[in-house]
Structure formats: C-alpha cells, structure tokens
Amino acid sequence: MKALQKTLLALAAGSLLSVSAQAAVSYGNGYTGQPYVGVKVGQFDLDVNGADDPTAYGVYGGYNFDPNFGIEAEYVGSDDADYRNGDIDAKTYGAYGTYRYAFPNTALYAKGKVGIAKTEVEGDYTTAGVRRSFSDDDTSLAGGVGLGYAINQDFNVEAEYAVTGSDADLMTVGAHLKF
C-alpha cells in the first residue's frame, strides 16, 4: 500500500508541474490560467500526549485554472520540539483541489482545499534511562480553510488551518507569487 500512496503523490505532483508549464493557456472566458509558488510558516498541532507543538516551515505551488478553481501541492516540515526528555518532529506532503471566493469590492478572499496528504511524525525519548523512538505515518483525505489578501495582482498573503491526517493539524501564514 505504501508504494501506491507514493505513486499517487508523485502523479499529483507531476500533474501540477505539467499544468504549470501551460501558464499561457487561455480558457476562452478571458481568463488565462496562472501558476504560483510560495512559502509558509506556522505550527503543527500534534495529537501526541506530552509533546510540544513544533514550528512548521513549508513550500507550496499551485495553478489557478480560473479565478475560483485550481490545484495545489505542498511540503511542510518542522523543527524538533520537546517530547519526554527527547524530541519530536513532523512533515507532510499534500496535493489538493482548491476553491477561492473573492469578497466583492475588496482584495480579501476565502480559500478552501481538499485532497490527499501524507503526514509523518517521528520522535525519540528517554524513559527509565532507556532511549526509545517511534514513527507514525498516515496518508488520508486532508483539507483546509483560510483567508487571503491580494497585495497586488501578483503577490498574495494567506492564513490557513489544515487537517493533514489523524495525528496532525497545521496552522500557517504564507505568501505566494503568481507568474
């Protein structure tokens, strides 16, 4: 099953890159599709008792087919956070379909996304003088909601809350550049 999950994520990422290469395609409605790339920072909310929440850092890219619908792929990793005389970290890879709703007469928009994500949580700790470690990975349906603001036609900032798997939620702020 793990090979199938990795294959699906690779196909989704490949599709995103292929579609992004067609940035100049016109869809007949006056809108030309638009790719974007960005960075984000935030915090994982891990469902692990006794663990501090690690700081998250990530990159993402997407393609808007029209002003409302698009696709997006992301990678988010973390630093080490304290966990029972040891540390814990997390990372997630995801591919999503996105929907944006632009609020009338403003540069503010709401964003929703749904797709598939693989989340990996690893840690090590010491108990009774013995060093132990664990790892957990989960590939599942994932999604998120957020608010964004278009600084100008090429640069946006977003705040987002995402559920990436059974063990981790993710709260981030980010910025992306359209090209």
Description:
The chain is built from one helix and nine strands; from the N terminus they run αβββββββββ. With 179 residues, the protein is mostly beta strands. The protein has one domain (2-178): Beta Barrel (Porin), CATH 2.40.160.20. An eight-stranded antiparallel β-barrel has the order 1-2-3-5-6-7-8-9. Strand 5 (87-102) and strand 6 form a beta hairpin. The longest helix has 19 residues, at 2-20. It holds the Pfam family OMP_b-brl. Residues 10-166 form the Outer membrane protein beta-barrel domain.
Map the helices and strands.
Blueprint: H1 2-20, E1 34-46, E2 55-64, E3 69-78, E4 81-82, E5 87-102, E6 108-127, E7 130-150, E8 155-163, E9 168-178
Antiparallel strand pairs: 1-2, 1-9, 2-3, 3-5, 4-5, 5-6, 6-7, 7-8, 8-9
Quick summary of this structure?
The protein contains one helix and nine strands. The chain has 179 residues and is mainly beta. It has a single domain, classed as Porin.
Q: What is the averaged pLDDT score?
A: 84
User: In percent, how helical is the residue content?
Assistant: 10-25%
Q: Major beta sheet, specifics?
A: 8 strands, antiparallel, barrel
Structural class: mainly beta
CATH class: Mainly Beta
CATH fold name: Porin
- C-alpha end-to-end distance: 37 Å
Number of domains: 1
Note the run of SSEs as H and E: HEEEEEEEEE
- Overall geometric form: elongated
% residues in beta strands = over 45%
Low-confidence stretches: 7-28
Any guess at the CATH architecture? Beta Barrel
- Order the strands across the largest sheet as they lie in space: 1-2-3-5-6-7-8-9
Rounded to the nearest angstrom, the radius of gyration is 18 Å
Instruction: Compute the number of strand runs.
Output: 9
How large is the count of helical segments? 1
